[in-house]
Amino acid sequence: MKNYKLLTPGPLTTTDSVKEVMMFDYCTWDDDYKVITQQIRKNLLNLAHVSEDEYTAVLMQGSGTFGVESVISSVIPEDGTLLLLSNGAYGERIAKMCDYHKISCIHITQDYDKTPDAKKAEEALKSHPEITHVAMIHSETTSGILNDIKSIGELADKYGKIFIVDAMSSFAGVDIPMKDWHISFLISSANKCIQGVPGFSFIIANRQLLLESKGRARSLSLDLYDQWAGMEKDGKWRYTSPTHVVRAFAQAMKELEEEGGIPARHARYQHNMDTLVKNFEELGFRLYVDKSWQGPIIATFLYPEGKQIDFKDMYAYIKERGYAIYPGKLTDMDTFRIGVIGEIYEEDIQKLTDIMKSYLETLN
Ligand SMILES: Cc1ncc(COP(=O)(O)O)c(C=O)c1O
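Above: query sequence and pyridoxal-5'-phosphate SMILES. Below: predicted holo structure tokens.
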């Protein structure tokens, strides 16, 4: 099979050095391996600008959804109520989790191209004192919009609510000072902006609130407290850990630091995005999200007016020339998406632009 780079929001293109460290089969209870888990947990706290006294990190087998579901199903008590602010498919997935676990949920939806409305959120907080938790998505990968979690965090704090953020596609690509933004639980995964490979998600949690959640879990394998309690002892995972993925993640964290940490990674992604938007607008594509809300992770584009484009045909043309792009996720509009995270540089965006230009010419 011909190789290609991923212009998708994770799994993403990783470095050869990240892939190479997976050529070793670690023993799960060996100290050398357990130390890797502990170091990762420590580093995650540093990336979130929080201290070990107040926060702690838990690694959870499975993809990002497993991490989100672990938090939702483990920390909200039986008599608790979640205020969910959604503007895309990943927010809606949290509502589905609440349905499955029979968790009381007040769900305020927003158009996919607009950020959740703080005024409506405040009205709900005022009129529903039974709300205990507030949840929202940071980078809504459905559209590429970057939601204002800081403002909602301030609101949650003002009303004494526990704030849960799904920062799946943004953590480490966008700086998130967790404590300053009043976030108590944050979820992301190995194959996003830290640039590891898929296999586990991670949760950064307020230590006290995590301790208080003991016994609340509605699922054995997703029991957040129990997963933490095992790991906290000596770094041993409760059940089989994805050893190769964990080792690759440690390497990816090292490379993030070598690149210059989150500020440098964010600058590279933002430059990729700015270049992409500028180039694609010149080709006649339009951004779905207003530029002021567009995040640096993934962009949704509308096709040029009057052009009939078959996504599958366009995808095959671009893949043949070295890049895999992403279909749209909007139900009411014909769109496609380009992710700019991973080992992707301006040169890749320029190459993609040339490929897209030549594809459009084949349609004339
Ligand atoms: C914001 C957000 N939340 C949740 C998920 C679900 O993650 P996964 O597909 O790894 O289960 C994704 C996936 O891209 C995402 O972007």
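Residues 9-10, 63-65, 68, 90, 137, 141, 166, 168-169, 189 surround pyridoxal-5'-phosphate (CB under 6 Å).
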